[in-house]
Amino acid sequence: MTALEAAEAATAPSPTTSTSSAPIPTSKDAPAASETQVKPNLPPLSPAEFRAYNRLAEHMDLFHNHFRQTWNTLYNAASTGRRPAAMSLKAFINEGLSFISHLETHHSIEETYIFPVLARKMPEFKAGKGNGAAELLRQHREIHKGMDELQDYLMKCRSGELDLEIAALKARLDTWGTVLWTHLDQEVKTLGAENMRQYWTIEEINRIPM
């Protein structure tokens, strides 16, 4: 049995775990019925319980803060026409390409190792085709469309095929900035203590591979 299989087996539903579905924030696509069920009322968490249930959210937010900071570096330069002090044009282009590479890797790890485990109980992470996928997965797809266009543009700028133009860079960032920031916040909120306790015990949370 692989480590992933063991992790998945460890987080299989147990008789003591609530499996009520949590609502998903509104999106332009109508959520599945399983994503709109009412949560049960649960007693307040102690500080220790909150920390345990909030572990995945805190861990995810560390990654997301890095993406937020790098996005701000790129977008501020695209908005003002001024690169960060002491950053060459080549370094700036490489910063953009590195941002795309890291975000792509982050999403790949989530969809391969994390989301399938969470989807055992949580409709927010269910995979599917088109609108059949959970909202967070649909956001991934929309984000990747913008990432691909930006990556193609920056690669041509790095090779010398195109000159980097601030207006062109900003236009490409604007196509997916809103969905990216919505996703970074919504994913962390979905992994937060008050939502996670609807589905998992603390022991199960501790066994989720992240």
TrEMBL record:
Annotated Pfam families: Hemerythrin
Q: Where is this region: Disordered?
A: 1-45
Q: Which stretches does UniProt call biased (Low complexity)?
A: 1-27
Question: Which ranges carry the Hemerythrin-like domain?
Answer: 57-190
Entries under InterPro entries matching the protein: Dimeric_xanthone_biosynth, Hemerythrin-like
Domain of life according to the entry: Eukaryota
CDD domains, alphabetically?
Answer: Hr-like (cd12108)
Q: Kindly give the PANTHER family that the UniProt entry links to this protein.
A: EXPRESSED PROTEIN, HEMERYTHRIN-LIKE DOMAIN-CONTAINING PROTEIN
The protein depicted here goes by the name Uu.00g079100.m01.CDS01
